[in-house]
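Lab meeting, action items carried over

1. Structure of the two-component assembly. Owner: GW. Status: complete.
Input record:
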Amino acid sequence: MELFEVKNLTKKFQNLNETQILFDINFKIKKGEFVSVMGPSGSGKSTILHILGFLLDYTDGEYFFKGKLYENYNQEEAAHVRNQEMGFVFQSFNLLNVESVYENVKLPLIYSNSPQKDWDKRIKQAIEQVGLTHRINYPVYNLSGGEKQRVAIARALINNPSVIFADEPTGNLDSKSGQSVMETLQKLNSEQGHTVVLITHETSTAEHAERIIYIKDGRIESDKKVKNRKIAKLGYQK
Amino acid sequence: MHLKHTLNTAIKSLLSQKSRSLLTVLGIVIGVAAIIVVMALGSGAQKLIIGQISNLGAESVVVQGGDGSLNTQSRTQTLTVEDYEAIIEPGNIPNLASASPIVTVSELVSNENKTYRPAIFGSIAQFFIESFNIYPTEGVPFSEEEIRSRSKVAIIGQEVKRQLFDTSESVVGRTIKIGDQRFRIGGVFPTTGRIVFFDVDELVLIPYTTAQTYLTGENTFVQINLRADNAENVEKVVFDTTNIVRQSRNIATGEEDDFRVQTQQALVEQVGTILSTLTAFLVAVVAISLVVGGVGVMNIMLVSVTERTKEIGLRKALGATQKNILTQFLFESVILTSLGGLVGIIFGTIIAYVTSIYLSQTLVQEWKFVFPINAVLLGVGVSASVGLIFGIYPASKAAKKNPIEALRYE
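Predicted assembly:
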């Protein structure tokens, strides 16, 4: 079953002049796939992720999430989809720096309807999954870049979403931390069946996916399976 | 979103900027404190004056000349001896127990080279003493006989004594001049302060007959105080008095009265209305400071929304709806102003209490501190409303932020 389907998608920005970022984009992503959207800086790959993540409206074309047209979701429903179906991992982490690891991971639960009695168990499980149990009460500003990104992954996982969007998740990390983040994403995909959509400009990172959609100047140049898929194996640095 | 978490988030956010929160809320603290002070002192004044009027007794009826202005000294003296005699004529007003006219005199009083301008009333000493419950501590009140014989005798207040004699010894038997007339001091009132519309300490009380004969030269009164034989008969006395005075003044049927007959109850209501209006006006003036405080809160909330643009974007990306963000920021502004309101209530109550003690020691002994429960409710209500009203614009600005633009904000 297709989780995402986009047809003839275009996106224009209205600044001083009208700028078209995406031209006639078409692709489908199945549930459980690990897909990289790759391209040089300014190619429009992040815009695709924001549209897929219900964070940005498109200009023309059609976008179906779980078979339902995006335009048919009202604001409340869109917020519910972001909360329940999608997890976001950003390049700049986007954590609440003064809060603890625990409080940051809890954040999506606050906007969910899940019963509070389960929260503590779920938060601890998510933190354990990314190997940060020993940092659970640390304020985020005390963590390393790799640890911060793993907090972001735990936060993305907390509502057990269908898809994890990772926008340049290794962009601000050293290579070891980057490997550890990629290993986590691969495990979440292979062991737990989460769909992962990875945005990156690096071929070496993109090759951790099973499929790469290559974007250039707002158009899809290629959409291919990865022949020699990289498997990240480093283990968490506790 | 769970309300408990919204509340926690709002409190954490306010605590993370303690100094700013304190300074933001200062305007609300001052505004609410000012409302409490004005209302507490207003209630205190109202209670005092109404209490004093009530002391006149439920049997009390007042006939006033002219427009019935409350200020005894500025009112025109239009009631005549004929009016007074018609009132006290046996049988005219069956339920009348006693009556006393009042003449006001505008003269300087002097002793050797010392002069002073007191309030000079010509009246019947006994009636005056019973009505206001003040008996001379030195000497005795002048008698009926002294009234009939137009004796030049006076009872003076403590301030008059101090200004003219500057002595703690008894001045009974000594003389003062009122205008160019020499009066013997028959008694001295104790230190009392203000009651109703005059200050007893600044009073010179003389027989009304003497005042008319030697000082005003007219046979008119500013007011005639009556007492019904029973509180239940007050309305009958008002009715009979109105008829008798109309006859005495030859007012034809259909013409309006040129005098007023008021009961103590009417006087209480009249004074109550005046003081309530005055207090409401002052509260309205003071409330302007709350608006200024509210604008301050709005300003800082707008700064906070801008500073936290990224956080708002993040929360929206994680599933917060517009309503969630709106509620969170409204909670912050309402908590801020409500806390300001509570602190304002505490400060206002302390200031009003201290002021009441000061007033009771310096101006009027009977001044009591009145805890303004309605002002407290008003203070809490108004401060929370200010937070709500002035928080809506920043909160809706936050709620409408586009998540991705907010996330990109640096």
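2. GW to write a short summary for the group page. Key points so far: Chain B has two domains: 3-52+270-408, 67-257. The mean pLDDT of chain B is 86.
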